[in-house]
Write a structure and sequence with these properties.
The protein is of the alpha/beta class and 269 residues long. The chain folds into two domains: 39-111, Ubiquitin-like (UB roll) (Roll); 114-267, 3-Layer(aba) Sandwich (Rossmann fold). It has seven helices and 13 strands. The chain has a ten-stranded mixed sheet with strand order 6-5-4-7-8-9-10-11-12-13. Strands 1-3-2 form a three-stranded mixed sheet. A hairpin with a 5-residue loop joins strand 9 (187-191) and strand 10. The longest helix has 32 residues, at 3-34. The termini are far apart.
Length: 269
């Protein structure tokens, strides 16, 4: 075969292939646009533990904004409008919406993740990005509670850091249930068990304060029980002052036994 015919055949078959591809794209894209959405899939990320919003809530938002895609022609469904509407919900961090030629619309959501809850000057969550978010009307996140005279700046700052410290410590994460900020800005910790209060004082050196209390838990309270005391004060250097009445006396009784006295100082912890 002469080379010229060889090139003519190659050009001919190439034109056929390209023509078929162009026709296929035109035909199938036109067909897809006439498809009707027959299913809506709402998917939450696997890492979302707190169900502050559910599939029914998402569907309701779409209905209220006339954005429910089911029954609508694919080409008339605006995924961008759906994303904008859902982004307005304060419980949602990210949202991605896309449609398929088969007539299914997918919505993938990531919820905001509460870190702690404030119940004091206001009622709200602080999320893992240190931003305040409203409390859900239908669902509650199991997170540490911060009460009292606490501001948003405190909650998203030093208290956020303190809660992170508690979370990373197996012992204290299991022990501390609530953090209270008194009017004098001193910090009280409420244990999960018993009626006693731990007076942390300020957040200065809180790691060392809790470390000395942990030693007292291990070396003393394991023997006599720590929940017999109403107040455990960590404000004193190298000391833990415990009192059954809930009031720290100005001159606590110093003793080697913590069984017989109402007020004690545990030294050199």
């Amino acid at each position: 075969m002469k080379p010229v015919w060889k090139y003519i055949l190659i050009a001919f078959f190439t034109s056929l292939v390209l023509g078929y591809l162009v026709y296929s794209l035109w035909y199938f894209s036109g067909t897809d646009k006439e498809n009707v959405c027959h299913k809506l899939e709402i998917i939450f990320n696997d890492g979302d533990k707190a169900q502050l919003i559910n599939q029914q809530d998402v569907a309701r938002i779409l209905e209220e904004n006339n954005l429910n895609p089911v029954g609508k022609t694919i080409k008339y469904i605006s995924t961008e409008n759906i994303e904008v509407a859902l982004h307005k919900n304060p419980m949602i961090k990210t949202v991605e919406c896309y449609k398929t030629p088969s007539g299914v619309v997918f919505i993938k959501l990531q919820q905001r993740c509460p870190k702690l809850r404030v119940v004091g000057l206001g009622s709200y969550y602080i999320d893992t990005d240190r931003k305040p978010m409203p409390v859900s009307q239908n669902y509650a996140a199991y997170v540490p509670v911060v009460s009292g005279n606490v501001t948003v700046t405190m909650a998203s700052g030093i208290i956020f850091d303190f809660v992170t410290f508690l979370e990373k410590n197996t012992f204290w994460n299991a022990q501390i249930e609530q953090i209270n900020v008194r009017d004098d800005k001193k910090i009280e910790l409420v244990p999960r068990v018993g009626d006693g209060i731990i007076l942390l004082g300020t957040f200065d050196n809180y790691e060392k304060k809790l470390e000395k209390l942990h030693k007292l838990y291990v070396n003393g309270f394991n023997t006599i029980g720590w929940n017999r005391y109403k107040l455990i004060d960590l404000e004193y250097k190298d000391q833990v002052v415990c009192n059954k009445t809930g009031i720290i006396v100005k001159t606590p009784i110093v003793t080697d036994s913590i069984e017989k006295k109402d007020s004690i100082i545990a030294r050199k912890l």
